[in-house]
Design goal:
With about 270 residues, the protein is mainly alpha-helical. It has two domains: about 230 residues, Up-down Bundle (Fumarate Reductase Cytochrome B subunit), CATH 1.20.950; about 40 residues. It is about 70% helix and about 0% strand. It contains eleven helices and two strands; from the N terminus they run H-E-H-H-H-H-H-H-E-H-H-H-H. Helix 4 packs across helix 6. It is elongated. The chain binds protoporphyrin IX containing FE. Protoporphyrin IX containing FE binds next to helix 2, helix 6 and helix 7.
Amino acid sequence: MSSSVERFDEKARRTFSRHGQTVVHRGELLRHTVYTRVLHWTVAISFILSLLSGFAIYSSWLYRWLTPLFGGGPLTRFLHPWFGLVFTIAFFFQFLNWFAPMHWTTADKRWMREVKAYITNREAVAPKDTGFFNGGQKLYYWTIAVCAVIFLITGLLLWFDDVIARWLVAVSYVLHDLAALAMLAGFIIHLYEGTAAQPGTFQSMTNGTVTNKWAWTHHPAWYAEVTGRDPREDYERERQRLTERDRVVEERERAEDRPQASVGTRDDRVR
Ligand code: HEM
């Protein structure tokens, strides 16, 4: 199964790269191809539209605020299952696209155990065996996969609720809403991690690239795999380079008798 998925994925990647290119500058690495980015943003947009239209139907308070976005109550009800369907189909392709790097490994277990040190910045760089995706990202992916299946089954049952038993409709409502809440929580964390928490991550889904510094900081094993270099050594070399540069600047400023400019901590600049 996995080789036919890979073949399909490879073909899709090649087709998309004929229509758009990813420019990788010096000091950068290719992170996400055009195909992956198109899939991701289709998933993201259809998910947000499903979420907003779903909340509009779910809560009478939100109904007033959100339904005008979709042209009124009846149109919101009509559109919601279609947004959901687009989300499920787009995520199915994204699921195939990321299936290989999302396999759970012992490195992910370790990442989960050490996550506190990493997110509280006690450790400047991620554990050295962190590959293309870390344990948290894989957890998010698999949560979406499970929720997408729940959405699809319960969503279809709710769409055609006049032909199924009442108890099944009631159970579907509960499962559909629980999946939506789990997805909302995951989405909030994902939004934060993909933007403010880790500067440089967002550009991987726009330009498709990341800097070497970003890679050796957050995904050292992937950095080692694609560059053939030691992430820890490169991190240390960059640290020493900046230390030396600071020393030269300080000396020059002292010589010129000027107050020293604030340039941030060294650790901030090597990751
Ligand atoms: C609209 C706001 C969003 C932003 C700014 C955003 C940003 C990103 C970025 C930058 C990455 C790449 C991370 C990396 O290369 O390490 C990513 C990956 C991913 N995104 Fe999004 N995303 C958004 C919405 C969504 C939504 C709505 C979903 C699904 C419901 C989603 C699912 C994923 C998944 C499964 C990954 C791979 C695993 C991970 O990085 O967590 N994203 N996203």
